[in-house]
């Protein structure tokens, strides 16, 4: 029997009102690893009601920021204590390798809470304006207040980290939340809610409802009592959310898809590029929104670079994500495996040359139910091809040759997306200058995937709206209030009243 995970509403673990459940599959072997209560609209409404009530009670929303920061530090500590459990659960449900979830994800998650707490401690929650002649005299204070109830919707690729990206700032600024994880991967979000409770975060501040996006997600997005939506997922769903949220004029943060370009300049170190470009593309089997999936290389260097990339790709160990020897695990599902294989077919049809991979790897029988794909490298890709324009979300690297650097920049920017980009070169000043011309929210020079909790992350163009992390994210989870207190008690000195009253004309 797989373990049962209830919903988490108002500090209580509860079944869905319909008593329905759904199964979570381990993508490494295709076996059921958990059964989860399947929320419906009524459960979402109840979670929103509880979040609203908790928010209005002031039990968390009126706690001083310094105390809230202490809670974030406590949560970070508790995450560190339960790191092993979180990492192995994350690996089981998402197929992210244990090497990565244990070696990086849990550390990043804990750090997200610590750094958000530190940023909160120095964040300008209150600002007094200098006095001016008119209107006045008066005392004018600008204060930051929580937004209210935030609906957080997360995808399946990095469920734990991405929940942390949203939960840490939402809690920091005093909001109450309803979070809906992706149905493939609800387990670590449910465990996080338990951790928050252990740390003493008041019940009802964080509520978790796992269930279908089209039903539960939309119920949250359209609910009048939800003040803000923070969504991470595909651009297609992001567009719909933006539309739906407009009916109640909700604030919206959207972290969407990408098709990130990496430009290799002629002086780049080929050894560094061949490892770095594969790290950029094949980490988590290419299922990272900012994966460097388009490698734009000088035409005359293409063959040599491809030779190196292929040699290196062949050393990546594919297998069960739970084994520490595994460098690349499965993709999330059989459906995703099919999607990726279809993209590979489309690349072949459009005339790209398959340099490596392109198939389901041969693996031990115990992994037959898993959804694996070989790391795949296409060369001679034209940027107009479907494999270069659409987000594949699988381990497929497109090598696109260029002639001049101006061409390379044009190709890099020729996409609807703008999440990340990169430049590989020994001339870092030149690389930075090119980086400034790339229309993307994050640009790496000679590296990839280097995200940090004190640096804002988000998309240009159709990769999204708003930013996560950095002090910038605290603006996203708060709103601005201007408090004007008049210092003119004598009605006869309020010269501005003459704008309305005739009696002033006589004075
Ligand atoms: P998805 O858009 O299918 O689903 C994301 C979440 O939205 C899930 O929880 C899903 O249940 C929910 N959802 C689906 N339809 C909905 C609707 N109509 N209303 C409300 N919620 C709905 O994305 P996915 O397949 O889970 O994740 C992969 C995508 O996420 C990729 O496009 C990837 O680039 C993107 N992503 C972006 C970032 C970023 O920071 N920019 C990070 C990770 C993933």
UniProtKB/TrEMBL annotation:
<feature type="domain" description="Aldehyde dehydrogenase">
    <location>
        <begin position="17"/>
        <end position="482"/>
    </location>
</feature>
<protein>
    <submittedName>
        <fullName>Aldehyde dehydrogenase (NAD+)</fullName>
    </submittedName>
</protein>
<comment type="similarity">
    <text>Belongs to the aldehyde dehydrogenase family.</text>
</comment>
<dbReference type="InterPro" id="IPR016163">
    <property type="entry name" value="Ald_DH_C"/>
</dbReference>
<keyword id="KW-0560">Oxidoreductase</keyword>
<dbReference type="GO" id="GO:0016620">
    <property type="term" value="F:oxidoreductase activity, acting on the aldehyde or oxo group of donors, NAD or NADP as acceptor"/>
</dbReference>
<dbReference type="InterPro" id="IPR015590">
    <property type="entry name" value="Aldehyde_DH_dom"/>
</dbReference>
<dbReference type="InterPro" id="IPR016162">
    <property type="entry name" value="Ald_DH_N"/>
</dbReference>
<feature type="active site">
    <location>
        <position position="255"/>
    </location>
</feature>
<dbReference type="Pfam" id="PF00171">
    <property type="entry name" value="Aldedh"/>
</dbReference>
<dbReference type="InterPro" id="IPR016161">
    <property type="entry name" value="Ald_DH/histidinol_DH"/>
</dbReference>
<dbReference type="InterPro" id="IPR029510">
    <property type="entry name" value="Ald_DH_CS_GLU"/>
</dbReference>
